[in-house]
Structure formats: structure tokens, C-alpha cells
Amino acid sequence: MKEIELRGQPVALFDNTPPQHTDAPPWLLVHGAGHDHAVWDEIAAGLATRGERVLMPDLPGHGGSGGGPLPDVDAMAGWILALADALGHERIRLCGHSMGSLVALAAAGKAPARIDRLALIGASVPMPVSPFLLDAARDDPEQAFALINKFSFAPAEILGDARRAEFEATNLRRMQQQGARVLASDLSACNAWQDGLAAAARVRCPTLVISGGADRMTPADSVKPLFDSLEKEGCSARMIVLAGAGHAMMQEAPEALVDALLRGL
């Protein structure tokens, strides 16, 4: 782990760069709500084995990064671009999951010339969060954690009881480590952001939208407005659906996701 400082706060940054790597811009992976960089571990390892440079930051207030969680998607996108500046990367390949997909999309809309490739995983624009879950995240976090676990993964009929239980246990620990305040802030940011289609209209790089065939949080059908907006403005966009995968594709189908990231763009 590298520790750098950005805007007066420490940033936990995990660099998975192989000794022999391509000259392409590095991948910068943005985690979702109530998570940290560790959700990307298998994906980063898979990309690195194929010669790709990979950077995984913890967003402010998450994991090992200091400060509080940033209040909205645009603030997180600005932070990601400032981090790329601090690291000396004029161009990056940007990939985000769930809330992170909104952050990646917002960053690509703010600075289209700086984004070499864009990958949006488990995306939906807009990304409404039910009032019940928003209230639970604020007032009854254990219930919120349970609800998120219920819908994050493909059914046990697909994954198997033991595998799904393992995923849920790991995800619960991860959310508890971030804390209820972080989850509540992140979910509110997702719910409030309404600029996704406008941001998509400004994207100019090849863009990949990846959905899980068994995703109940952001079903593949919900991605159509985003994909249509990308295509309408002449962006080279492609959509891939990973059969049998739920919202947490990085854990459920890491090899298929890595292959999609490298072959889909």
C-alpha cells in the first residue's frame, strides 16, 4: 500500500503494477457504497497478470483513507481526478462498480479528454435507493447491511448455499468496517445524483457497460437509458451481460469480468 496525501488527508492507495507492464494508461478502480478497495482484489490481480497497471484507492472516509465520506457523486469524481493529478497520470482507464460507476461516469463527463477507457459495472442512471433502505442505513444499520446482502448476490440456486453464505459474511464485515455513517452518506449520494445522462453525453472514450444477468439491484434492463445516451452521442459503447452473476460481479465472476474488461473495449 502507498500512502499519499490529497487535500490535507491521507489516501490509502493500492498499486498492483506488474514488473512487465503495458505502456497504456493505468486502470483506476473505484469501489461502491460502504466498501473499500478490497472488493477489487481479484480483478486487480487478474488484470496485472495480463500486464495491466492497476490502482485501487479507498475513497475518503473509507478503508484506510482519512477524512469523512464525500457528500455527493460530483465531489467524489473531482477527488478521483485530483488523485490522478497527484499521481502524475494525465490519462487513466477508469472503472467503477455501483456507486463507483456513477463516480467514474461523472469524472469522464467532467474531463472526457483524460479518460482513455471507461468501464461501468453494475450501473444504473439514475440509481434510486428505496426510502426504506435510506432510513435503515441511518437508523438501523444492521438491517440495512442485511438488506444489501440479500440483494447483492445471485440466488443460492445459482451460487450454492455455502458460496453465497461466504460472500455475505465477507460483505457484512466490509460494510461494518466502513461504518453506518459512511454507508448512509454513500446511499444518499447515489440516490441524489441526477446528472448521469448528461455526463454520458459528454463521454468520448470507448465505454463498456457490464451487467449481471442475475443482478437485482441494477438489472440489465435498467442500463438501457445510459447505454442509449452513450451511443446517441457517438461514443463507442458496448454492453456485456455476465450470465448468472449478481450485483457483486467482482466476487461472483472475477475471471469473466477480467476477460470482459480486456476484450470488451
From TrEMBL:
InterPro entries: AB_hydrolase_1, AB_hydrolase_fold, AB_hydrolase_sf, Epox_hydrolase-like. It comes from the Bacteria. Signal peptide: none annotated. GO terms for cellular component: membrane. One of its GO terms (molecular function) is hydrolase activity. Gene3D superfamilies: alpha/beta hydrolase. SUPFAM superfamilies: alpha/beta-Hydrolases. Residues 26-250 form the AB hydrolase-1 domain. Keywords: Hydrolase. The keyword Hydrolase applies. PANTHER family: HYDROLASE, PUTATIVE (AFU_ORTHOLOGUE AFUA_2G14860)-RELATED, MONOACYLGLYCEROL LIPASE. This is Alpha/beta hydrolase.
